[in-house]
Amino acid sequence: MRILNIVMLLAFLLSVFVQINDPDPLLWIIVYGLAAAACIMYHVKKLEWRYPAVLGVLTLLWAASLAPAVIGKVGWGELVTDITMKTIAVEKGREMGGLLIIAAWMLVLAQNLRNSKQE
After folding, report:
1. Number of domains in the chain
2. H-only helix segments in 19-119
3. Cβ density class 13-43: b for 16+ within 10 Å, e for less
4. Closest residue by Cα to residue 56 from 78, 31, 73
5. What is the pTM of this model?
6. Whether the Cβ atoms of residue 53 and residue 69 lie closer than 8 Å to each other
7. Long-range contacts made by residues 33-41, C-beta under 8 angstroms, separation at least 24?
8. Which residue has the higher pLDDT, 94 or 45?
9. Which side of the chain, N or C, has fewer Cβ within a 10 Å radius?
């Protein structure tokens, strides 16, 4: 679990740095930064389960809000085969994917922390 957390930490930190070219970088830097902070706190055993739980739920809701702009409007291949943003649906699809990755990992951390507290 600790190794996978470090991998996710590195992915979130990389995501922070690539947001510089985004049309709305501050918002994305903050959300990826919050996810990276959760990974760091987990690694040093200072993370309370509520932090990743709340971040996970918020990013999941945010991803769901983007779904209407993506589902049925862009194919999986368009999201991963070309680095350019050809359409707004591609941009929203990639944003949705990032949010879903954050949500999934935060919920894994929250569940792991809750389970370790019960033992």
Report:
1. 1
2. 25-43, 50-70, 76-80, 88-118
3. eebbeebeeeeeeeebbebbebbbbbbeebe
4. 31
5. 0.89
6. no
7. 35/8, 35/59, 35/102, 35/105, 35/106, 36/9, 36/12, 38/106, 38/109, 39/5, 39/6, 39/8, 39/9, 39/12, 39/105, 39/109, 40/9
8. 45
9. C
- pLDDT (tens digit, 9 = 90+) per residue, 25-57? 999 999 999 999 999 999 999 999 999 999 999
User: Which residues, 6 or more positions from 85, have their beta carbon under 8 angstroms from its beta carbon?
Assistant: 91, 94
Classify residue 85 by its DSSP letter: -
Enter the tokens of residue 94. Answer: 């990639």
